[in-house]
Every structure is written in structure tokens, then in C-alpha cells.
Amino acid sequence: MERDKVGGTCLHRGCIPSKAMLHAAELVDGIAEARERWGVKATLESVDWPALVATRDDIVSRNHKGVEGQLSHAGVQVVRGSAQLTGPRNVRVTSGGTFTARRGVVLATGSRPRTLPGLPPDGNRVVTSDDALFAAGLPTSVLVLGGGAIGVEYASFHRSMGAEVTLVEAADRLLPLEDLDVSRHLARGLKRRGIDVQVGARLMEATVLDDGVRAQVRTSRGEIRTVEVARLLVAVGRAPVTDGLGLAAAGLTTDERGFVAPADWSRLETSVPGIHVVGDLLPPPSPGLAHASFAEGMLVAETLAGLPSPPLDYAAVPRVTYSSPQTASVGLTEAGARERDHDVMINTMPLTAVAKGMVHGQGGVVKVVAARGGPVLGVHLVGPNVSEMIAESQLIVGWDAEPSDVARHIHAHPTLSEAVGETFLTLAGRGLHQQQS
Ligand SMILES: Cc1cc2nc3c(=O)[nH]c(=O)nc-3n(C[C@H](O)[C@H](O)[C@H](O)COP(=O)(O)OP(=O)(O)OC[C@H]3O[C@@H](n4cnc5c(N)ncnc54)[C@H](O)[C@@H]3O)c2cc1C
Ligand SMILES: NC(=O)c1ccc[n+]([C@@H]2O[C@H](COP(=O)([O-])OP(=O)(O)OC[C@H]3O[C@@H](n4cnc5c(N)ncnc54)[C@H](O)[C@@H]3O)[C@@H](O)[C@H]2O)c1
């Protein structure tokens, strides 16, 4: 049952359109790099926003058709409309029709942007990530409120497109759930690109004007700054969608944050037998990421079909931010490992320590957290292309490999991944360019 379009947030308003836009942003950044570093006499004429949107939407639309085709091919009946539980096995759909589930019900209603009291989005001057996709044009200046993945990606995108960008995060660092060094390197990279990064900061007041927003921001030092911007993007998190879902009729409640918590995480089954829950509707440790949601969906589908399904290992789910610089990580942060009383070994290496890192010239870092005499606990990357580089590290962490297991494998030269390989060589006591500390 789907009231909008199959594919959900990720395909229509999230991962895919935002990554398409960030790809265009990389191309724009490449023009400046070509001119400034490589003697290529190129200048940016302009960005044709409707053309960018057309390419983005074509990618979304082709994926949408693909999902619809796959569902049809698999014999899935898609019922259009808002679904409401009327009992543990009964669902009514607004478009008409009632349904009784023989095997079970899967709740997958996802999430929507959180907004702030007194700051209602108007789709034009105060916007959410949904509105930002469908805005009529690109703003000349933006205040992004929230330095999580959405805030960081949109701040990065708008800066590439030439806007003046202020990024305001209430916590004392960007991506507060990531390793401290990831937050530091990311903030440094964004500042180098001219983004005004304000962490430990608060939006005190926002006045909507005819042509933008006047905002008062209290910085971490207690100064009050007035910023006038064409657009204020609210990216302070997402809230689970359960309104009108009829949870009570099925004997279910939400937790205090609005999530539907499973009673049995191994089957993602709620306290009502036969009702399962997946995706953004789940509380942590489910990470609110599309790839984790896909895996949760597979687990429930296989469970309901009576097929074997390997348990989910949330600790080995990679986390990627597609800004410039990118961040990618898997496993425990250094602080998280210490909290769990691990005797940790840390090694960090700048990406520019390898030749390919110098070619890219964008800085970046590899940080590995390992248990002394034991497995690798976490890998944290910042820099160009790290979204594609994290795959080997997820296997390293997921398979409980030790640094010496990784160190025996030869990395291709010259690649950015060599920096990952060298970080492990040093941890295994066979450092080439680094001494083991
Ligand atoms: C801007 C942005 C960028 C993102 N980028 C990434 C990324 O790069 N990588 C990543 O891993 N994650 C990313 N995410 C997160 C990702 O989109 C979510 O984790 C994922 O979409 C969750 O999937 P879901 O199926 O739980 O929910 P959703 O994708 O939200 O789908 C829920 C579906 O349920 C439908 N629905 C809701 N209630 C009802 C009802 N009562 N009846 C019928 N239908 C209903 C909705 O219409 C919707 O289609 C991003 C999110 C945003 C907003
Ligand atoms: N690349 C990706 O994987 C990707 C991209 C976008 C979104 N997502 C997912 O979508 C979800 C939503 O992302 P998000 O970035 O909106 O949420 P988030 O919860 O990850 O980050 C929100 C940030 O806003 C800050 N914040 C909250 N209130 C604030 C306030 N009043 N002023 C200033 N800062 C404030 C929080 O401290 C936090 O750092 C997350 O689960 C995220 O992982 C993932």
C-alpha cells in the first residue's frame, strides 16, 4: 500500500535526487580546480537549474519505472492510497478496500522532515529538504540549520553552486555521531570552501522578509550575528510517520520519540505477533539509512517466507556523507571504542601522503580504530571518493579482521585506497612511510 510513489523518500526526495545534484556540484567544482591547478582555461558560464533538474528527475523517473516494473514482475499488487490498521491483521485503504493479511503486516511508513516551532516552512524562503528539490531556482545565499547529513550535503551543494552559505549546528561539531576527527576534517574542508560553519550555535530569531529571511544566530562565543539570506533550509532531523496509521487499533504504541520499536529485533517483529517494522520507523540502533532499510526489508520478507536470513549487523553498516569533502565510516568511533573499554590502537594518515591524494589535492584523512591485539573496530575516512572507498572497510569490520589480515593484501598503486592499506600496514607493525606509535 502506497499513498504517494513506490520508492519512497530515498528515490523521490532523498538519496537519489540529492546525489544527482551533488554530482553536478562536483562537476562545477572541477571547473575551478581545472583552472586553478591544471592550467585548463575554463570558466563557469552559468548553471541552468531547469536543465539540472530535468537530468535529476529523469534519473529518478527511470528508477521509479524500474521499481514499478520489478514489483509487477514479482506479482506484487500495489494498492494506491493511505493505509490504516483496523486490527492486528486488518488494513483499510482510503482509496477504498479492506484487506486481511494471512502471514503478517509490515509497517514501512518512513519519516518526514522535522520542523521547528515558530519556523513553518513556506516552500520558498523557509524550506525543508523536500522543498529545496522543487524550488523555482537556486538561491544566492542560504542559511542551513542543522549539521547532520542533510545539512552538510545541502550546504556543500549550494556552495558549489555559488551561494554564500552559513551552516548552523547546535551541537559542538558537525555530524555529531561520527568520530571527532571526521567532524574536524569535514568542518575544515567546508570552511576552506568558504562556508561559514557555526557549531555550538543557535538560531535565536528568524524574520521572513519579502525576498528572504533575516536570522539572528548566537555563536558558540555568545556573539549575536545577523545574517540575511535568500533561503533558510531547516535540516534538524526527521520524524517517523505514524499519524493516521491506526497503531492503537492493532494494539501498538509508539515510543516517546514516535518510533515503533520491535519487541524482537532479530525478526523486527513488534509486540503484536505478525506485525513487523522496518526502515525509518525503527528507533536506533537502526540508523535511518536507505541501505539499512533495504536490508531490514529483506530480513522481514525472508522471515515471513520461512527462508533463512542472516542477522543484521548494524555495527557494520557504512555511513556516508556526499558533501565536498565526503565522509565515510563504518564501525566504532574512537570515543565509542573507549566507552566500551577497548584497549584501542589508533592510526591516522592524511590522504595526501599517497601520490593519488596529491593528485586530487583536496586533503582528507584515513583513521583506523583497532583493539590492541584484536580486530579492527572502526574505519573513518574524509576526502574525495571516500564514498566508494568504504566498501573494503565494511568487510574488514564486518568480518572482524585484524590489521595484519588486511596488511597482507596489496593495494593497487596509485590509488587513494593505498592510504587505507598503509594505515593497516603500520598498525600491523610493517609501516612503510609511518612509524608505529
Ligand atoms: C535529503 C535526503 C537525503 C538522503 N540521502 C540518503 C543517502 O544518501 N543514503 C541513505 O542511505 N539514506 C539517505 N536518506 C535517508 C533515506 O531516504 C531513508 O532512510 C529511507 O528512505 C527510509 O526508507 P523507508 O522505506 O523506511 O521510508 P520512506 O522512504 O520514507 O518510505 C515510506 C513510504 O511510505 C508511504 N506511506 C507513509 N504512510 C503511509 C500510509 N499510511 N499509507 C500508505 N503509504 C504510506 C510514503 O508515501 C513513502 O513512500 C536521505 C534522506 C533525505 C531526506
Ligand atoms: N548521505 C546519507 O546517508 C544521508 C543524507 C541525508 C540524510 N540522511 C539521513 O536522513 C536522516 C535525517 O538527516 P538530518 O541531517 O536531517 O538529521 P540528523 O538528525 O542526522 O541531523 C540533524 C542535526 O541538526 C542538529 N539540530 C537539531 N536541532 C537544531 C537546531 N534547532 N539548531 C541547529 N541544529 C540543530 C542536530 O544536532 C543534528 O546534528 C538521518 O537519518 C540521516 O542519516 C542520510
TrEMBL record:
Residues 6-297 form the FAD/NAD(P)-binding domain. Pfam families: Pyr_redox_2, Pyr_redox_dim. Residues 317-422 form the Pyridine nucleotide-disulphide oxidoreductase dimerisation domain. Keywords: Disulfide bond, FAD, Flavoprotein, NAD, Oxidoreductase, Redox-active center. Its cofactor is FAD. Gene3D superfamilies: 3.30.390.30, FAD/NAD(P)-binding domain (3.50.50.60). The keyword Disulfide bond applies. Belongs to the class-I pyridine nucleotide-disulfide oxidoreductase family. This is Dihydrolipoyl dehydrogenase. It comes from Streptomyces chryseus.
